[in-house]
Amino acid sequence: MRGIQLTKLPWTDVPAIEDITDSLPKKGNWDAKAKRWVVQGVWDGKTYNKGPRSPEDIHTIVIHHSGPPNGTIKSHAEYHARKWGCGIAYHMVIDKGRIYQTNDLLSMTYHSGNNNTYTVGICVNRDLSNSEMTDLERKLLYSAILTVKSLLPITNIKGHRELPASATACPCTSEDRIRKDIESLEEQIEYLNTPSAERVLSYAFAERINDLGTKFNDIKWGVPAKAKVMQLAVVMEQLGYTGEVTPEGIVKRVRDIYNNSAMAKYEDEGFKKLLIGANKAKEVGLL
Ligand SMILES: [Zn+2]
User: Fold this and answer.
1) pLDDT tens digits for 2-54?
2) Domains of the chain and CATH, by start
3) Given the DSSP bridges, would you call strands 98-101 and 156-159 parallel, antiparallel or unpaired?
4) What is the whole-number distance in angstroms between the Cα of residue 66 and the centre of ligand 1?
5) What's the gap in Å between 161 CA and the centre of ligand 1?
6) How far apart are CA 7 and CA 147, in angstroms?
7) 71 CA distance to ligand 1 middle (Å)
8) What is the rounded distance in angstroms from the CA atom of residue 37 to the CA atom of residue 153?
9) Where does the pLDDT of residue 231 fall: very low under 50, low under 70, confident under 90, or very high at 90 and above?
């Protein structure tokens, strides 16, 4: 799982995930290294595994901070490479306003002691022991978590310190808050992805008006199309239209609202305006 893409989110201002796995310093490949297959902290004393993990084995996201001293992703990669002979141990890193993928999500890496077979490690690249995550870091972290959750059968989100037999304060931030926020974001996403009858109606309205607008220059249908559109004149003020009401102006206004609300996918303001138009359109028999 390389080059992963952001899942659908309740916001649109998060930059694309950049996969920098191949450009980071490394001494070897995680998948080529034979690693103790420690399951839930217990090793049978003989099993070593190479190669990528099965997606179904990966059910926990582990949150890390990079801790002191603050370093770059590259410096962490160099340090991890020296320590374990592969590359960076995190799968994803939040750093300076971006989300980076730093390993194949299926690679088993050494980010959490004896808990690496079933986990994906996401690191906020800053020392969170002396200050809380910024709003931006939190937003990027949540975007990364939701993205990993959309790709793997994740059932748990844990801080590094919450794992069995871990002796660390990492990630020095409230895991409960993260879990609670993710839960409510998932509810929001589900709501937004389920089009209500009203939402369907408002978009049908936009399509209908757009369609009538394309007929304005038609010799036969132009005049009746304009007359139909003009029936909406009375609600145009509520749709934020100012100035002299013309058929072309109405169509343009509806197209603008539609385009803006489609761009900011989950923007409710445009949808509400379209719904006003849709109700009028129904009343006059346009829908
Ligand atoms: Zn950690």
Assistant:
1) 999 999 888 889 999 999 999 999 999 999 999 888 877 788 888 888 889 99
2) 18-193 (3.40.80.10), 197-283 (no CATH)
3) unpaired
4) 7
5) 7
6) 5
7) 14
8) 20
9) very high
